[in-house]
Design goal:
single chain; 375 residues; alpha+beta; 51% helix; disordered N terminus
Length: 375
């Protein structure tokens, strides 16, 4: 996997709400998509509780509500069905992944799919694999994918040349503006779904953390939510400004963009303009070689905002993060957005933390620094 340079602006230790809502709202209205997300949230809660049979049932319910499930959900569903030896169900999920371009190597390389690969249902899947991939090939808009990849190359080239923004900062920002101007027509017409843009794949799972379009938006989102009067990055007139939050929210409503990805991007950028925060990003503390996460206070207003977007509660999100850090041996994808929506704060010492902070921490176990390929 290519090393990525991300322009990360840390928004807060616990991603606490930064502003009042000012009477605005970002809400998902489509009942079918809401039903899909409800079932997926129930499935992920079951996974955290090690109830993979219930999770498998919830995924089946979810896929009845959305004709084109997200790759991460199909992948998690396949893991659950394989674990429960429901190989007929696993075959159906595998076909769905193949139609999203999943290489056969993913099935061969992932040890948690061994049961399905060795079952009698794998050969029928292989017999239909070429037809599935032809569907994928017809669905992918290679012109759009090529444009996104080209813009991503520009985005990364300058950041790799100046990883610390020490001498190319202004040039990077000017290039960001050009990238966003080139991308806006795509956002203004039809945000590309996974089927249209194509899913990126790693050796054992979807490479959801390195989607180029999401990374471009992460770097440029806030540039197009304000005018030049309060934005140093380059917008000069109100007419030139575009409310990216509204454009991306349309993509969520259409089922093309996962609400978790939208919430992550919005918290990093759009929150500054709309004053609406979903607390999608979390802080993981590394204290003397061990990982800790805080115990969140129950925030009814925050959870109401999250529910309006189809997200799980903040408490459920934290439980998924703890599960991922402690016991996710099967490799479930439970948080979407860059780095699983987690910001790692290294090098802390107990003596530097307030007593009230220390008392509210949950020990997640030893810290293992990410490799270069995971940045």
């Amino acid at each position: 996997m290519t090393t990525l340079r991300l322009f990360a602006v840390y928004l807060g230790f616990w991603s606490a709400a930064m502003a009042a809502t000012h009477g605005q709202s970002l809400q998902l209205h489509d009942p079918q998509f809401r039903a899909y997300l409800t079932s997926v949230n129930q499935a992920e809660e079951s996974i955290v509780n090690d109830d993979f049979a219930a999770a498998s049932d919830h995924y089946i319910e979810a896929f009845h509500s959305k004709q084109q499930p997200f790759a991460t959900d199909l992948f998690n569903a396949l893991l659950c069905a394989t674990h429960e030896q429901r190989y007929d169900v696993a075959e159906a999920h595998a076909h769905g992944l193949a139609r999203l371009g999943c290489p056969l190597e993913v099935f061969a390389n992932n040890p948690n799919l061994k049961g399905f690969v060795n079952s009698t249902y794998y050969k029928p899947f292989l017999n239909g694999y070429d037809a599935d991939r032809m569907i994928n090939e017809r669905n992918v808009d290679h012109a759009v994918r090529g444009k996104v990849d080209s813009l991503f190359t520009i985005d990364q080239t300058m950041r790799l040349a100046d990883p610390e923004y020490s001498f190319l900062r202004d040039s990077i920002y000017r290039e960001d503006m050009r990238i966003m101007r080139a991308l806006l027509p795509l956002l203004n017409t039809d945000y590309p779904s996974e089927q249209r843009l194509g899913v990126r794949w790693g050796p054992q799972a979807p490479s959801w953390e390195t989607e180029p379009l999401v990374i471009i938006l992460l770097h440029n989102y806030n540039s197009y939510d304000t005018t030049g009067t309060d934005n140093p990055n380059g917008l000069r007139t109100a007419a030139e400004a575009t409310d990216v939050s509204d454009q991306l929210m349309k993509a969520v409503e259409q089922g093309s963009l996962h609400p978790e990805v939208f919430a992550y991007l919005h918290d990093r950028s759009g929150d500054f303009q709309k004053g609406i925060d979903f607390a999608q990003e979390m802080g993981i503390l590394v204290i003397e070689g061990r990982c800790y996460v805080g115990r969140p206070d129950v925030d009814a207003a925050l959870n109401a905002r999250r529910a309006a977007l189809g997200l799980c509660t903040k408490e459920q999100q934290r439980a998924k993060a703890v599960y991922k850090m402690r016991s996710n041996a099967m490799g479930f994808i439970l948080n979407r957005g860059m780095s699983g929506n987690m910001t790692i704060l290294e090098g802390l010492e107990w003596t530097t933390l307030p007593q009230e902070t220390r008392e509210g921490l949950i020990d997640l176990g030893p810290y293992e620094p990410p490799s270069e390929s995971e940045h």
